[in-house]
Design a protein that fits this description.
By secondary structure, the chain is an alpha/beta fold. It has 10 helices and 14 strands. Strands 5-4-1-12-13-14 form a 6-stranded parallel sheet. A 4-stranded parallel sheet has the order 6-7-8-11, with helices on one face. It has a two-stranded antiparallel ribbon with strand order 2-3. The structure holds magnesium ion (MG).
Length: 348
Amino acid sequence: MAFTLYALIQTAILFTNAIAVLHEERFLSKIGWGAEQSIGGFGDEPGIKAQLLNLIRSVRTVMRVPLIAPNVRLRQRRTLVGSKSMMASRRALKAVLIDLSGTLHIEDAAVPGAQEALARLRQAPVAVKFVTNTTKECKRTLFERLRRLNFDLQEQEIFTSLTAARNLLEQRAVRPLLLVEDSALEDFTGLETSDPNAVVIGLAPDHFNYQALNKAFRLILDGAPLIAIHKARYYKRKDGLALGPGPFVTGLEYATDTKATVVGKPEKAFFLEALRDLNCSPEEAVMIGDDARDDVGGAQNAGMLGILVKTGKYRPGDEGKINPPPHLTCDSFPEAVNHILEHLLGSK
Ligand SMILES: [Mg+2]
């Protein structure tokens, strides 16, 4: 009974509202108020007609609510359906990519709880790979450092931007001038470097002097391709933030009016290459890192989920520097692992 009465009232309101909408303009002209008359005018000329019109418009606004509300509900329902279908398109998690510097460790100090969190992650049915933009250390040195810090990993699980650079040099069959630290040279062993016809630039604090950069500049002017390990603006050291290779790469680009080929994060090709031997698509992977642009933004551009940790180079507000924002921003690597174990393993 109550439902029938409610339905009748709703029908009457809808009908009245429709009539009001259809006849409002005609009514306005009959009482001498054109459609151009704004509500704001009533305060200046509060005549009887204005007050009547104001009343009618107020009633109309109230009566419109039943018309508007279902539309809002429909939009909300569509949004929910949309997000559910997005979840449906994301497949079960198969792989976790983990940044090293700033995420698992800062120089020779591990992030608190990171070793134990990695051990917990390894209990889950997901592959783990360590992806790093390091340019100063070869893969072996990185591996030994992490083992000293008691992290459970294998050397072949590390994929670095140096490896990506070497792959590109071999594909192009060029002879590089290597502007990298001596400790990184091991990863380029066997490549022909005499009479260089390409420039590879990483972070090389001991080699970034005028003579070395000028040699690179002249080679590039002569047509040598400029290959950047990555273009990070800065990174985190024990004594604070420090310049990354980005400013030096950009300096050579500016001087020679060329664009570098970047091989490390955040390049999509880097993430796809890291996933290749895991037999895993980007939609089945998540990346954890302390660099909003290079780790999280890059991974998400490649189709992965990205988790930003507030350790290492993280600065307040970094999560707002990328669009879309990170899937999750959390205090540290152990918290990221908790999120994966609790929320991502079951998604299908
Ligand atoms: Mg990092």
